[in-house]
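Title: Prediction job returns without error message
Component: structure pipeline
Severity: low
Priority: P3
Assignee: unassigned

Description:
Job completed but the reporter wants confirmation the result is attached to the right record. Sequence as submitted:
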Amino acid sequence: MRGDQGDGQGITRARDAPVAATVKSNRTTAATTKEMTMRIFVAGGTGVVGRPLVEALVSHGHQVTVSTRRTDSFPLVEALGARPVVMDGLDETGIRHAIFGAEPEVMINLMTALSAPSRDYGTWLALTNRLRSEGTNLLMNAAAEAGCRRVVAQSASFMIEPGPGATDESAMPYLDGPEPLGSHVHANIEAETRVLNTPAIEGVVLRYGFLYGAGTSIGPGGDIATAVKAGEMPIVGEGAGRYPLVHVRDAASATLNAIDRGGAGIYNIVDDEPAPQAEWLPYLAQLLDAPPPRRVSEEAAEQQFGVQAVYYGNQLRAASNAKAKARLGFAPEYPSWRDGFRKVFG
């Protein structure tokens, strides 16, 4: 399974990534002593967040086991210095065998299925929804039985009810959103609840923003970048949706910190500058030497792309990263998407 890419306006898909540059940690000392070394299991650790994360975990001296669905990913995992294991995220027997064999002190759940091709947004999300709900439940059961003490799980920061003002981790999720948004939000919240309420486990939920950088949809050759370059990704309505963006290496860095920092709870992993669609799309188009994005009405966007295009493009609320900064020591290398975009596309 691959790390979640986010979905832009639902007209793009996640992409695989090459091994990323080493993640910078915000720590003052590396976990290189025997006393600080931990056994860590990364479920779905070959995606765009998983690869730089695994590389960083190994460089800090941890013993890392990485699950993948296919044996052809073994050379990649081994090149990162980790031990690979085949695991289907919906197979209870396989999950128990993998986790019991690793005996992890910490488990990191990055499982999604967002690289699977589909033109239909709901179909594209269906397997990821099952991994978030059913898969997370199976993982947590096995982790608890194996004596795991902390679980760090991926979620999304872009699933909050429309309304005025910025949001934090306590904001109401969009549970009554139109389909297929509603089902995706329910699956995420079900996963978060299971992670946070499993006895004897410290549950940490990281709500990533829309990922950008190498291998993501908002990266060189990615689906969003390709659509923008072709003039095929419009601004919806006023373009008032404020995207929570985060560079893929910053997401990995926050995850590295979360293995032993901060208390149990939910953290938004986003940059410092929520990005209105009416600002970031033209900026990206300019960097790509692409035509300025056209504008479409909410009605036209819903008809052409789906309800998610309206939600993300014109209704999405800003998300704060203050809690992650204060408790996880989150210090993004790219606090503004403007600087990050210039680095990625410059």
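Comment from assignee: result matches the submitted record. The chain has a mean pLDDT of 91.
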